Amino acid sequence: MIINSRKFYFILTIIITSFLFFSGIGLVYVYETSIKNINKNDFKKKDLVYNLVKPIIQESQPVNILLIGGDKVAKNADTMMLINFNPITTDMSIMSIPRDTRIHIKGSNLPKINTAYQVGGSDRCIETVCSLLNVKIKYYIYIDVNNLVEIIDNLDGVYYNVPANMDYDDPVQNLHIHLKKGYQLLDGKKSIQFLRFRKASKSNRDVRKIYNGSDLNREQAQQNFIKEFLRQKKDMKYIGRINSIINSILENLDTNVTVSGAIKLSQNAPNFKANEIKTFILPGNEASIKEGKYGVLSFYVPNINDTSKIINEHFKSDLP
């Protein structure tokens, strides 16, 4: 099953959460359990366990992570998101960067941020986002979206309140969305339907309250889904499935995050509160602009002043 990744920035949060929290919580849990089970007088064993784990649970500064989603075969990056995570407080901020964001890309004639990966891979993406947002980025994660269904199914799906009857058919994209209104369990395929929904084939009052056809409305719905997904999946019962979950994730994952790095970031993961995640969409406006040989194109033009305020408050990091 080939999944169109164009607006699926939400999957990146699933990846970072799984990679950081499921692997990290598991090892930290093992460490804490081992310490509790050691006799207080048996300091040698206690010191041994501590010394083995100590090097990987000491990260203390907020870190910026660039999350990229696309199709490896097509070598594209249709989704980008910047995450700032504080491993001490477990505060998390997420900024979605629209794929049509207008910015000069070294090596590309088309000034849209989604061309950065095509011309220079993850390094060019990092360089471009650092320039756009004036931030330092330590880690990147690139995920091929074709394993999204498997990841969600491995995590038992998501209980979610679908706000309206969602019916949409696009034979060209082989996209068919049919979800009933109400609280229900969404498996991988149904989750994709919800997260791809932007408008109905036949509009109804419930749909019009939430969706007007804009991608920004869909991004807001996806952010709400992210928070609920993380709230449900921060559960110790998933530790027993760490291997299958991580294997599913790593199958199409390209990252400079090591296992030890993930654990450093997840030392206080049990305190993580999904409902306190701060979510943002890069401030700006949609505009039609004439672009050389391409003619008039649709762009997303960032508002630099508003962006700087958000960056200074929520995405500062001294880790290069």
Can you offer a commentary on this structure?
Residues 76-233 form the Cell envelope-related transcriptional attenuator domain. This is Cell envelope-related transcriptional attenuator. The chain has helices spanning 10-37, 43-53, 116-133, 148-154, 188-196, 205-210, 215-233, 242-250, 259-265, 304-314, and strands at residues 63-70, 79-85, 92-97, 139-144, 158-162, 166-170, 175-179, 182-186, 253-255, 278-281, 284-290, 296-302. By secondary structure, it is an alpha+beta fold. It has a domain at 10-155 and 239-314: Aminopeptidase (3-Layer(aba) Sandwich), CATH 3.40.630.190. Strand 6 and strand 7 (175-179) form a beta hairpin. Helix 1 (10-37) runs antiparallel to helix 2. The longest helix has 28 residues, at 10-37. Mean pLDDT is 75; it is low at 1-14, 17-41 and 43-58.
Here the CATH topology of the domain at 10-155 and 239-314 equals Aminopeptidase
Instruction: State the CATH superfamily name of the domain at 10-155 and 239-314.
Output: LCP protein
**Computed structural class:** alpha+beta
Q: Could you say what the CATH architecture of the domain at 10-155 and 239-314 is?
A: 3-Layer(aba) Sandwich
Helix content: 25-40%
Please report the distance between the alpha carbons of the first and last residues. 38 Å
User: Rg from C-alpha positions?
Assistant: 21 Å
Count the helices. How many? 10
Per DSSP, what share of the residues sits in E-state strands of 2 or more residues? 15-25%
Order of helices and strands: HHEEEHEHEEEEHHHHEHEEEH
Secondary structure tally: strands: 12
Low-confidence sequence ranges: 1-14, 17-41, 43-58
**Which sheet architecture does the biggest sheet show?**
6 strands, mixed
Give the CA-based shape.
Answer: globular
Mean pLDDT: 75
What strand line-up does the widest sheet have? 9-4-1-2-3-10
CATH top-level class of the domain at 10-155 and 239-314: Alpha Beta
Transmembrane segments: 9-31
Keywords: Membrane, Transmembrane, Transmembrane helix
Domain Cell envelope-related transcriptional attenuator: 76-233
InterPro entries: LytR/CpsA/Psr_CW_biosynth, LytR_CpsA_psr
